[in-house]
Write a structure and sequence with these properties.
mainly alpha; 2 domains; globular; RNA_pol_sigma-70-like; RNA_pol_sigma_r3/r4-like; DNA binding; transcription; DNA-binding
């Protein structure tokens, strides 16, 4: 379904349920992996994904259609994931950096993580990055997003994103060499 028709159907009470089911069907896997790269845990990812779609449903009428649906969805998912991590760090009385290290270490025991030692090392390198660089790297490297789309999701300039990605790559390379 074309995006403009989908939005129209989402905002119409009579067609909202069907359109929302289609939206979830179209985006749930992509958003799952986007969120998973931020929160790292399968169960936490499911919770954040569910919260994301609840927020989307509750706020569909406030969607101004100034951006593509997918960038709006990714922005909500990103914000939900980051909020979740902040709450989790507060609950465990730890810093965001310590929480990231803990989550990466838990990947070894995660039955849903099927990566090898190299992928685990890459995840450790990514976890060592500052939050913005981590987000930009994941969106550019794994999801192959365009800088313009990442810019809309993170509300940052394209030039700033390119610099963040460059610094992230250099830090990951240095981490992997050690």
């Amino acid at each position: 379904m074309q995006e403009d028709i989908l939005i129209k159907n989402l905002k119409n009470v009579a067609t909202q349920e069907t359109a929302f089911s289609e939206l979830v069907s179209n985006y749930k896997e992509r958003l799952y992996w986007h969120i998973r790269r931020i929160v790292l845990d399968h169960d936490d990812t499911d919770d954040v994904l569910q919260n994301t779609f609840i927020k989307v449903f509750q706020n569909i009428n406030s969607f101004k259609e100034e951006s593509a649906v997918y960038t709006w969805l990714y922005r909500i998912a990103t914000n939900e994931a980051l909020s979740f991590l902040k709450k989790k760090a507060t609950i465990f009385n730890t810093s965001s950096e310590e929480l990231q290290s803990f989550l990466v270490e838990n990947l070894k025991a995660d039955v849903y993580f099927d990566g090898d030692e190299i992928q685990l090392k890459l995840q450790q390198a990514i976890a060592s990055l500052p939050e913005k660089q981590r987000l930009v790297f994941n969106m550019k490297y794994y999801e192959e997003m365009k800088y313009e789309d990442i810019s809309k999701i993170l509300d940052t300039s394209v030039g700033g994103l390119k610099a963040s990605y460059h610094h992230a790559v250099k830090k990951i390379e240095a981490f992997l060499k050690d």
